[in-house]
Amino acid sequence: MAERSPSLEIRQLLAATIGLVAFLGLTGYALDQAFIQTATDNLRERLKGYASAYYAGGEISRKLEFQPPYVPPDPRFSQPDSGLYAAAVGPKVSWSSSSTLGRRLPLVSDLAVGQTRMDGPLTLVDRGEPNEHVYRFAMSVVWEDGSGKNRREVPFVFNVLESTDVLDRQVGVFRRALWRYLGAAGVLLLIMQIVAVRWSLQPLRRIQRELQRVQRGGAERLTGAHPRELAPLAESINAFVVSEREHLERYRNTLSDLAHSLKTPLAVLRTALDDDRGARALREEVRAQVQRMNEIVSYQLSRGASTGHRLFAAPLEIHSRAEGIVTSLEKVYAAKGVLCEFDLDPAARFHGDAGDLMELLGNLLENAFKWARTRVLLTTRNEAARADRRPGLWLIVEDNGPGIPADRVEHLLQRGVRGDERVQGHGIGLSIVQNIVRAYHGELVVDASEELGGARFSVHFPPGL
Hints:
The chain has helices at residues 8-57, 164-200, 202-216, 231-274, 279-303, 319-332, 354-371, 409-412, 429-439; strands at residues 59-60, 66-67, 84-89, 94-96, 103-104, 116-126, 129-145, 152-163, 315-317, 339-343, 349-351, 375-383, 392-399, 443-448, 455-461. The protein is α+β, with helices and mostly antiparallel strands. It folds into three domains: 1-200, no CATH class; 231-303; 315-461, Histidine kinase-like ATPase, C-terminal domain (Heat Shock Protein 90). The two termini are 34 Å apart. 22% of the residues are buried. Mean pLDDT is 79; it is low at 415-427.
């Protein structure tokens, strides 16, 4: 048993979920990295602000000792183990904030004047044990005091360090909020996607339900309006259903008519067998009834020859088939000297069964040869259609015979009727033509030929699926 393929709904939801997860994941990663970069830049500016505040508010004593401002830029500089540290290091300067008590700071002392540096994370050592990581900002400055000969320049590097816990907490808070909101957005979008998929697939479900009703016999065709993309599918299914029913109905009628027609000769044979006839009389009766049954079978086979409209039939070229039929007919009617002329459109094609095309051409051309005096004209024309439909076809047969009066056309198209009882035939050729044309939803028009003066048989197959 073949494995069932996943439904269209599952396929679309799976694809949408994968795309949604990938999109939200990439979006979250991009926002996370952008926030970290922004937070790091803010940290650098904040540490730089602390260093600048110390430099602007501090002084260098005569003993070359750095005197910080009375109020530090942040109270944490005065609190031991606060996570915020400051230090000034130079050839003649060495100072650190109260918060560095017991800490061994990784300080920078070799920067060129005017340079700054941002590092981290770095490890701090407390009582010989590394237990904290910090970011470090270093700024090289020169302290200038006095003027002239008393002017002093004291270069040193100002270091400000802050624990990574501060930045990590900011990033943690942002990430929790980010993924919480992205998760909520993902759930909401997934629900919307499920609703959208189910809504968009609703027409397919409706077609599926209608097909099931057709299969169970609850409906004869698909009904209702369908979206533009599904309308050709619905039309094709309806045409296919109608075509199959027409085929079935035609086969049933043909078999029923054949059985009904054979009842009489079989009854005659049964009666002849029951009678006390001589062998010669019985043989003659059997021969006559067998001949009659042969004619009945031939007639019913001709009637069932039209296989009818096929939805996905390949286009058939007409010229070569018409040429073969005309060659045979010209030999049969060689005594009359009838010639057939062609006016064929190279693009013209018959969309259907090859047997139907041969029956159609054969009966129309034979009828024209039978009644023509000297000339028969076969014309085909292609009828353009929309891009999503196959083209139509005009097939016209004309002769220069006596023609058919307008009031006799309908009568002559009936089965078994001949235009002239003196002319050999069974009177079913034009009826077969009419049955084929109807099976392909076409139209047969019989009128007078303007060019040849005789009868003109025009068959039109409209553009279709």
